[in-house]
Amino acid sequence: MKLILDTNVLISGIFFGGPPGKILQAWRDGRLTLILSPEIFDEYQRVAGALHRKFPLVDLTALLELIVVEAEMVQPDALDDGVCADPDDDKFIACALAAGSKLIVSGDKHLLDVNGYRGIEVLKPRTFIDRHLLN
Prior knowledge:
single chain, alpha/beta, Rossmann fold, 5 strands, about 55% helix
């Protein structure tokens, strides 16, 4: 199963476990394929760098290197029109369209508001687990 993880889900899974952590574990177990675009990976790196500056003992470099090697990288086209109320979130929609993925996991309100856009499900982590990992 291919899916895109919003940055907040990735970071939450790394640091706090819970449903986002279970999703990362399913990826590590080979049950999921993470899909990335260069723009999403840049955001992952930017947030990881900010965390490292704030908490110097936090270094996500090795994990990011693993993600870039193990994830499927796509080169999405820019969307003709903005989809999300926050234009910065459109990169996740564009990535899903380019990959032919129908799943984005996010807790971001702007992405959740566009659930169903062109057949793409945007699910909160707990909902994703209940629907797709517990079966």
